[in-house]
Amino acid sequence: MSQATVPDTTVGELNDRVEAAHRAYLVARNVPPTERKNWLYAIADGLDANAAGLIELADQESHLGETRLTGELKRTSFQLRLLADEAASGEPLDLVIDHADPDWGMGPRPDIRRMNVPLGVVGVFGASNFPFAFSVVGGDSAAALAAGCSVVHKGHEAHPRLAARTTEIVVSALQGAGAPDGLFSLVTGIEAGSELVQHPLVQAVGFTGSTRGGRALFDLIADRPEPIPFYGELGSTNPVFVAPQAWQQRSAEIIDGYLGSATMGVGQFCTKPGLLIVPAGADLPALLADADVGRRLGQMLTQRLEDGFLNALQEMRERHGISTLAGGSGPDELTVLSTTAENVLAEPEILQQEMFGPATLIIEYSRDGALIDLAEALDGQLTATLQADDADDVDELVRVLTRKAGRLLWNGWPTGVTVSYGQQHGGPYPASTASRTTSVGTAAILRFLRPVAYQDFPSTGCPSGSATTMRRPGCGAGWTVCGPRPAGDRPDGRPDRDRRAGRWGGR
What residues does each domain of the chain span? Predict the structure, then answer.
C-alpha cells in the first residue's frame, strides 16, 4: 500500500487537532501524576495486545524483520511504563521548599515552593529508523505525556500505515483510561509539519532525523513571534578511538565488534559508529576479510534514504586521500573506506560527514598526540567510544571527549541505548540542539516541564494537579507542597529548610 492511502493533513485539520490538544492539556495538567501513570500504562497494554499486527505492518513498511521489531516494540512498552512510574514518583516535579526564615542572611525570607509544571501542546516528529521506539509513541511522545502535556505527532512518510494504526491504538487506550479527548493525535505531510512547529499553541517540539530537515524546522521555530524549545537530534558520526596497547593486544576483536555495531540495522542507527581511529601499520584488508566484511546486510528503509546514503558515500570517496578498503558494490553491503589522521586534520569536515547507511571510515594515526588533535577537531556527537587497556594513557583524551559528546563508552559499542535513569542521549550541536537534555531515559520528562515558584501561597492556592503531599526517604510524616510547615520537629532531624522535599523516596 502506498503513501497515498494515508492522505496529508490539511491546514484546517491541523488547527483543529492542535486546538483539541490544547483543551486536553488544560485538563491533563491538573491531573495528578499517579493518575497520568494509568494513561501511559493503558497505551503500553494496548501496544502489547496488538503486537502481532503492529510488527507485521512495521515489517512491510520498514524491512527491519520480525526479531528486530519485536525487541523494539518491547522497548517502547517498557519506556512508557518506566516514564509513567517516574512521573508518579514525583521526581520530575523537582520540588524545592524554602520555609519562611526571619533570620535569612539578606533579610527575612518568604516561604517559597518551586516545582515544575507541564509546558502545553508538544509537536513530535517521528523517526524513520525506529518505527516504534522513536516514532509515534516513542520516547518524546511518552515523555511529554508523562509530563502532563498533550501530543500532536507528525508521522514519518517511511511508515504511514503503521503510524495511523499505532495512533488508533493510542487514542483508544487513552479513551478507555479516562484521558481527555484530543490528548494525542496524528498529522501527516510536509505542509502539516511546517505548520505544526509554527502554531501558536504548540509549546515545544521534539525531532529525530537529518541535520538538513532538523535545521529547517529549527529555523522556522526561531522565526516565530514566540520562540519555543526545539529538541532536535540531527546528526552524529560517533567516533571510536583505539589506543595503542588495546590495538596491539586485540585488533581482530576490535574490528569484529566495530563492524558488528556499524552494520546493525544496515547502518541506519543514529548511534552507528562511523569512524574508527586506529594506530597505523596493521594489515587492515586481512583483518576485514577475517571479519566477513562482504556479507549481505539487507534492504535500506526507504529509497530516499538509500539515495541520500549513496550520494554521501560518493562524496566521501571523491575526497582527497580516501581509498576503499572493502565492499562498495551496493547499498546492501558494507563499504569500508580508509585515510590518515594527517589527511583528516587537513580537512576536518570529514569527521562530521555522516554516511547514514552501510559505510564507515577507518582513520590511521602514526604519531603521539594525533588522538587528541582528532578529538579537538570534532563537532558535537551523541557518543564517543574508547577502546583502551590499562597501559594506555587516555586521561586527556577523555577530558576532550567529555566536551564533545553526550555519552562516552569504555570498551563497548554505541549501538543499543538502554532506557534507564542515568541515560544521556544527546550532545553538543549538531548531535542535538539542546545538549542539556536527553531524549532517552527518565530525565527526558524534564524537556516538557518548566519551573514555577509559589511564594507565600496557602494550601488552598496550590495547583490542583500538583502532588499535595510527599515523603522524603526515612521520613514518617508527609510534607505539604503549599501552606504552613507541619507543626513539630522533623522526624529525620534535618534543618527547617527543606531543599529537596520533592524527592519522594528512592527507586
Answer: 32-234+439-448, 239-410
